[in-house]
Amino acid sequence: MPYLKKCPPVPEPIDCRILTAALDLFVENGFHNVSIHEVQKRAQVSIGSIYNHFGGKEGVAQALYKHILNEMDELVETVMAEFPTPWQQCEAIIRQLFEHTETHRNIIAFVFHAKHTEFISQDPLMCHSAAFSKMRSIVRNGIEAGEFVDMDSWVLTSSIFGGAIRMIQLRLDGVIEKPLPEYGEMLLQTIRTGVFQERSDA
Amino acid sequence: MPYLKKCPPVPEPIDCRILTAALDLFVENGFHNVSIHEVQKRAQVSIGSIYNHFGGKEGVAQALYKHILNEMDELVETVMAEFPTPWQQCEAIIRQLFEHTETHRNIIAFVFHAKHTEFISQDPLMCHSAAFSKMRSIVRNGIEAGEFVDMDSWVLTSSIFGGAIRMIQLRLDGVIEKPLPEYGEMLLQTIRTGVFQERSDA
DNA sequence: GTCTATATATGGATAGAC
DNA sequence: GTCTATCCATATATAGAC
User: Fold this and answer.
1) For residue range B112-126, what is the model confidence (pLDDT) as tens digits?
2) Which of A1, A43, A154, B4 has CA 20 to 30 A from B40's CA?
3) Residues of chain B with C-beta less than 8 angstroms from the C-beta of A31
């Protein structure tokens, strides 16, 4: 009789339990449709603890927000260190985001789906976050290096990442039914060379 | 003394007043941060009337949702009637959306910014709406006609419209500071021919 | 059909024991 | 630090007069 097996491994720290419970609930039902009582119940923690650790519901959301923005930033940072050229970096970021959409669904959903200003007062607007700033600066590097076409960097950043972000949203909504990585190369192709069929008589 | 001027022209019908007030408030503060009392106050209508006409706050949101999806559908419909080729239709839709973002800001914001499932139960998911379906079918037409590259239509639709949608969101968030139509041609260029600089030595 | 006043529930927040 | 029980504001929804 494997007695020791019944010992739960290492119990997760309490604030971590709260955050993961909150993330799941917020993504599933939306911030405003989730009560502290529900978070408390799912996290197996008392209300008092939630107030102790985060000061309330919005405090939980803020902590979550910061934490997840950090993760995103690290993702971009890693890619930048690993690949030399701006375009390779863009490619890698899109591939990573597609992977993450499948493996860390709720994190991605929290980043791309929610309108954070609705529940985080004094919201340092997602697109001003370190991760998104870095994505734009990659694009600027590419322009300066003569790799990308020379135009407004907001437009170009939107052109490069907009399609991917759109696909992520469609995937999260369940509209796209197959895992995103299957579509990665296709998407990258259109970003590189546009959407037109090569004219065979050209 | 121009006495007649003081007569308000034709008073707007009551349900219209409610909808426009609600639209503005929902976009500004988010559905859950707006109380019926605020809508009532801004629309200069009593709470009873709101319940009579729409059955409650969610009813107002649903009516708004339907109405606005209709407008979007008409926009796409008109473009399809006016332009012959799929690509011209795509171009025109993007230009129209950019225009609308400036002239009907809150309508566009309601369409692209909100996560409707959070406040509309049984939400016929935006991307399944007539307008979005038609956009995708335009893309399919382009593929069949050999105009667009032959690939999954979700990917291609995202490639074509994703950048525009992204720019609309950035504009609504105040990140992009100039009116979108200024960027229209730039964006269309990258969709057509990709993001790379033409190599002068090619 | 429109209004005002009110009932009722929900849920964020706190107090105080352990 | 953690818990339970309770408070109290808010906001949806309704009742009933006009």
Assistant:
1) 987 899 999 877 888
2) B4
3) 32
